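Project outcomes to date are best conveyed with an example. Our students and postdoctoral researchers have been running inverse folding experiments weekly, and each run begins with a structure described purely in tokens. The record below, which covers 100 residues, was selected by the lab manager from last quarter's runs and is presented without edits.
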């Protein structure tokens, strides 16, 4: 998976499952994937080591992948999208973003 595809994939998982991460993990993931900050910038901003940032990203990514593997919500969304249920899909996605 190339860098752009991985970023899109992780951002999608963050949209769906991000609220299941710890506050710190979510902030670090957002800084890294949404704000495009480097490990050094995040570590400096948070007062932790680059290794701690890298570990947090790895652990959060694993959690997100595990949630998707167990719950398959992104897969369900894709299935709905393929069946011309875009309006329903948009409502579900909006509900998730709003914290339902």
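After processing, the design step wrote out the following sequence:
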């Amino acid at each position: 998976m190339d860098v752009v595809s991985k970023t899109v994939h992780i951002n999608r998982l963050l949209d769906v499952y991000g609220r299941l991460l710890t506050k710190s993990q979510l902030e670090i993931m957002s800084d890294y994937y949404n704000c495009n900050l480097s490990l050094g910038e995040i570590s400096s901003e948070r007062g932790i080591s680059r290794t701690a940032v890298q570990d947090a990203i790895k652990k959060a990514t694993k959690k997100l992948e595990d949630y998707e593997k167990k719950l398959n919500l992104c897969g369900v969304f894709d299935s709905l999208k393929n069946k011309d249920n875009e309006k329903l899909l948009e409502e579900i996605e909006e509900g998730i973003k709003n914290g339902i």
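The domain at 3-97 is CATH 1.10.10.10 (Arc Repressor Mutant, subunit A). The mean pLDDT is 89. The training component of this project remains on track.
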